[in-house]
């Protein structure tokens, strides 16, 4: 059927409608009849050509009247078949069919109950306020829903919470502890008093005292206490804090990773990290970390420092009674340190008793053992680690510098702490030296306050093997960080002459330009007169101002021809100035450096070098004289012999002895110094004592020395004046060093060594 186009259609455009084929069932065995394209009964069936034409006409209409489009252009945006629904795809999977069947059956059974639990507000059939009251089914459904949502929330929170990579600074930082030569504590440094101890070094009684007081179920809990958390949350909302309810794991998390804020958020984060940590670390690792990071009061972190601060002993030496008291401090040292108040003591005793009883209840202390702890173990009145004293600050400074250098420890590593520095300092010698210098200082201030205000006393004792046994650095390190024992500011004066003597004995002398070197002995004679010109192979030595250089003796005394040994005994200076020239000032310098003086402190190579123009420190002068006591072998002075970090030994580059002069040379110098001491102080020491020493004076009276050896320990004392507020230029002593018969340096030296006279 064809219809004439309406409206906008052109005359040439027609619309052909194709009616669906109508199939009718014929008699049995016959094919069904098909209606014509118009769908009108009796219409003839169109030919194939007609059908093709009709299809082409319909294609033209769909294509907007554009004939001749290519198949590629016609299929550019083909229509996609609709995607099957998820339900249909699941149903089509034969593997899921049984499961879907079971779920469908279950849903059918639960559907009526779900409809009944669906809240209907206001509830039908109720009146007044009862209309708004949920039924028991609704209450039950809400409860299960809440539990499910809470569980889901906890799972998500657990997965989203990470254990922080960095510990709190106070959880990693430790203090550095310094020990005397006998192993007793000397001082500590660092902002935090903490030293890590392996769990194996902490006694069982100490561990269980802490667990009994804080978390007796530690080895069985998952890292948190649900009841404790609930109690803490209720307290937060009710009273504004979150006290109590924490396991050992939670407390460690708070100490090591979090802050001390008392909020629900912090408490929740603490619980999540504790759960993860409990799965990642063993219980032993957690307990060890907790015991090493907990705060115990008196500036201490960790059970090791607490044992030392309260009982002056290592944790390995604690008994159960002492451990029970330290465990009570975990509740708050400000409330349980008995030295702070009587109320604190009452609380401490009560908590101590309770902790010991709990140890019995959990089977970690027998009743018989418990019966032995009847008296409360009173702690020390103050922390002995804080009592470093003023003088020990100088010792710590020397030791820390040496430990870092010898152990190759960086400043950053050292500041993190945890090091145990075992020094060479002898406590008795140090105390004796400090006392005698302090008395001399007080006397000078009393006799001449104005002049003595700028006086300084440097002192050091060094053993023949290089160990620094004692030093005096100053009156107060907090006011004067300048270390008087290690200062290189004043000349050595005539105390330097033993090195000139050793150089002559070691290398011999040359008195002519091309002549051979000839040996020198203690019996070699030199001119000992005062103001004797110094000569060279070419004649007198002239300084830059055009004047002859001459040597002088103390008191302008002349001695004529005198042996070198006798000149050393009588402190005659002029022979040694000439000996230095004959030996060669380069040889003198090399001998002094080989014996222990620093190259930077050696004076210029002019005749004054032999008279002590060098400026060594008291430590270096003592170390130099110790070379003669050690048969000519020198060992660099050192103040630390062992360093450990949390028990692990740190390798140190300790000095090795090296040959400075021949043994016979050292023996001759020591013999001359012994004669010098006996001549000046015949009653200064017992006749059998091995004592040697020599005074030292300077040309301008800016320093006075006494350096000597007693029983293989060399001690150097120097007195000088410098006004640190003005400059570092030495000032005249103006009588502060005493006289030849009453020498202040010698008085300090003999007093420090415990000698008479």
UniProtKB/TrEMBL annotation:
Start and end of every Glycosyl transferase family domain? 183-359
Instruction: Give the EC number(s) under which this enzyme is classified.
Output: 2.4.-.-
Question: Which regions are flagged for Basic residues bias?
Answer: 69-82
Q: Which GO terms describe its molecular function?
A: glycosyltransferase activity
List, alphabetically, the SUPFAM superfamilies matched.
beta-lactamase/transpeptidase-like, Lysozyme-like
> Which region ranges are annotated with the description Disordered?
1-90, 512-541
For the Penicillin-binding protein transpeptidase domain, which residue ranges apply? 464-715
Keywords per UniProt: Carboxypeptidase, Glycosyltransferase, Hydrolase, Membrane, Multifunctional enzyme, Protease, Transferase, Transmembrane, Transmembrane helix
**This protein's record includes keyword rRNA-binding:** no
Q: Where are the transmembrane segments?
A: 139-160
Q: Which regions are flagged for Low complexity bias?
A: 43-56
Identify the PANTHER family for this entry: BINDING PROTEIN TRANSPEPTIDASE, PUTATIVE-RELATED, PENICILLIN-BINDING PROTEIN 1A
Q: What is this protein called?
A: Transglycosylase domain-containing protein
Origin organism is Streptomyces cathayae
Question: What is this organism's lineage?
Answer: Bacteria, Bacillati, Actinomycetota, Actinomycetes, Kitasatosporales
């Amino acid at each position: 059927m064809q219809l004439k186009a309406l409206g906008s259609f052109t005359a040439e455009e027609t619309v052909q409608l194709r009616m669906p084929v109508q199939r009718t069932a014929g008699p049995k065995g016959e094919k069904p009849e098909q209606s014509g394209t118009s769908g009108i009964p009796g219409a003839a069936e169109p030919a194939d050509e007609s059908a093709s034409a009709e299809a082409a006409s319909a294609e033209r209409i769909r294509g907007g009247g554009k004939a001749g489009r290519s198949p590629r252009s016609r299929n550019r945006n083909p229509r996609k078949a609709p995607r099957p629904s998820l339900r249909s795809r699941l149903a089509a999977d034969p593997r899921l069919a049984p499961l879907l069947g079971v779920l469908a059956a279950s849903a059918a059974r639960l559907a009526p109950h779900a409809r009944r639990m669906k809240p209907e507000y206001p509830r039908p059939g109720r009146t007044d306020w009862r209309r708004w009251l949920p039924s028991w089914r609704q209450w039950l459904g809400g409860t299960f829903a809440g539990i499910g949502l809470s569980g889901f929330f906890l799972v998500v929170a657990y997965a989203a919470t990470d254990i922080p990579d960095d510990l709190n600074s106070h959880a990693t930082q430790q203090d550095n502890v310094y020990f005397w030569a006998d192993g007793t504590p000397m001082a500590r440094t660092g902002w935090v008093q903490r030293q890590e101890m392996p769990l194996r070094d902490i006694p069982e009684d100490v561990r269980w005292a802490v667990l009994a007081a804080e978390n007796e179920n530690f080895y069985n809990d998952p890292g948190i206490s649900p009841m404790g958390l609930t109690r803490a949350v209720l307290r937060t909302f009710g009273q504004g804090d979150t006290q109590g309810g924490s396991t050992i794991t939670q407390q460690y998390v708070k100490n090591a990773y979090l802050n001390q804020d008392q909020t629900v958020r912090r408490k929740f984060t603490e619980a999540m990290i504790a759960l993860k940590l409990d799965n990642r670390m063993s219980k032993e690792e957690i307990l060890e970390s907790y015991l090493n990071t907990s705060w115990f009061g008196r500036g201490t972190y960790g059970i090791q420092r607490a044992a030392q601060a309260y009982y002056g002993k290592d944790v390995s030496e604690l008994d159960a009674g002492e451990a029970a008291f330290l465990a009570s401090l975990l509740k708050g040292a400000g409330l349980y340190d008995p030295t702070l108040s009587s109320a604190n003591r009452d609380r401490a005793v009560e908590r101590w008793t309770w902790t010991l009883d709990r140890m019995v209840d959990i089977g970690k202390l027998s009743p018989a053992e418990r019966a032995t702890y009847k008296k409360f173990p009173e702690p020390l009145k103050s922390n002995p680690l804080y009592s470093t004293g003023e003088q020990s600050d100088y010792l710590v400074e020397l030791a820390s510098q040496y430990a870092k250098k010898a152990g190759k420890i960086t400043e950053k590593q050292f500041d993190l702490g945890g090091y145990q520095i075992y020094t060479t300092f002898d406590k008795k010698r140090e105390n004796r030296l400090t006392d005698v210098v302090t008395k001399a200082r007080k006397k000078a201030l009393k006799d001449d306050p104005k002049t003595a205000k700028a006086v300084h006393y440097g002192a050091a004792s060094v053993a023949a093997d290089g160990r620094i046994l004692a030093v005096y650095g100053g009156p107060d390190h907090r006011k004067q960080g300048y270390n008087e024992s290690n200062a290189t500011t004043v000349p050595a004066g005539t105390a330097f002459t033993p090195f000139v003597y050793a150089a002559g004995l070691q290398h011999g002398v040359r008195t002519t330009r091309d002549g051979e070197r000839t040996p020198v002995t203690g019996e070699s004679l030199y001119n000992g007169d005062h103001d004797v010109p110094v000569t060279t192979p070419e004649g007198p030595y002239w300084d830059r101002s055009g004047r002859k250089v001459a040597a002088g003796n103390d008191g302008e005394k002349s001695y004529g021809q005198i042996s070198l040994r006798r000149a050393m005994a009588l402190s005659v200076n002029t022979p040694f100035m000439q000996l230095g020239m004959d030996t060669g000032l380069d040889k003198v310098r090399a001998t002094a450096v080989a014996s222990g003086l620093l190259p930077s402190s050696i004076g210029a190579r002019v005749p004054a070098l032999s008279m002590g123009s060098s400026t060594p420190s008291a430590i270096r002068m003592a170390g130099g004289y110790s070379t003669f006591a050690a048969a000519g072998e020198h060992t660099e002075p050192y103040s630390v012999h062992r360093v450990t970090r949390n028990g692990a030994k740190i390798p140190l580059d300790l000095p090795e002895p090296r040959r400075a002069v021949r043994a016979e040379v050292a023996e001759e110098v020591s013999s001359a110094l012994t004669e010098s001491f006996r001549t000046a102080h015949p009653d200064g020491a017992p006749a059998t004592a091995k004592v040697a020493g020599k005074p030292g004076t300077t040309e301008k009276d800016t320093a006075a020395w006494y350096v000597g050896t007693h029983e293989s320990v060399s001690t150097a004392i120097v007195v000088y004046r410098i006004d640190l507020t003005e400059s570092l230029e030495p000032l005249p002593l103006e009588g502060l060093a005493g006289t030849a018969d009453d020498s202040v340096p010698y008085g300090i030296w003999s007093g420090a060594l415990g000698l008479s006279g």
